[in-house]
Amino acid sequence: MNSRFYVHFAALATVAVLLAGCSGSADGDKSVAGNPLQLRVVGSMVDGTCTAPTLKSDGPASACNTAGTTKYELGKSLGTITPTSVALSADQGSTHSIVLEFNAADTSRLSTASGTAMNKNLAILLDGRVLSAPLVNAQITSSPLTLAFSTAAEAKQTVTALSASGTP
């Protein structure tokens, strides 16, 4: 498996611990509402070139990660959540992280989905592609959520993608 996967994997394995203590965006980092994210349990994943089409259905299906380097077999949709804000982490030493905040209803959906995915990978999809698929070690019951990436550039690119206007 590629190192990016392991970074995502490890990052959200510790999310339950980080959730309560994460700070918002740094001064100068604009915090904006994000695009919807779909949640699905991962059945399997295989590293290598992925050519699966962009996922458009709510049923079980195959999907690629955003880089097209991993193919995921996913269960049916567990729902969508839409961040109320998306920002680079302001925590010192977290230049590779982003912070997503959710309203109460979406935090509840995330809690239900993460409970369903306990000890499994939970795929977080943006525009039909897997953004991250961390192993869920503990149910996520509060907001904000921190996602870690392998590079600062990848974190910035993800903030841009999440903050961009929705596709028609």
Structural commentary:
- With 168 residues, the protein is α+β, with helices and mostly antiparallel strands.
- The chain has one domain: 2-Layer Sandwich (Gyrase A, domain 2).
- 24% of the residues lie in helices and 29% in strands.
- It has four helices and eight strands, in the order ααβββββαβββα.
- The termini are far apart.
Short summary:
This protein is 24% helix and 29% strand. With 168 residues, it is an alpha+beta fold.
**Series of secondary-structure elements, N-terminal to C-terminal:** HHEEEEEHEEEH
Question: So what's the overall shape?
Answer: globular
Number of domains: 1
Instruction: Please state roughly what percent of the residues sit in beta strands, choosing from under 5%, 5-15%, 15-25%, 25-35%, 35-45% or over 45%.
Output: 25-35%
Could you tell me the CATH topology label.
Gyrase A, domain 2
Uncertain segments are: 1-30
CATH class: Alpha Beta
The Rg value, from CA coordinates, equals 15 Å
Second-tier CATH architecture: 2-Layer Sandwich
Largest sheet: 5 strands, antiparallel
Taking strands numbered 1, 2, ... along the chain, how are they ordered across the largest sheet? Answer: 2-3-1-6-7
The proportion of residues forming helix, as a percent range, comes to: 10-25%
Mean pLDDT value: 80
Number of strands: 8
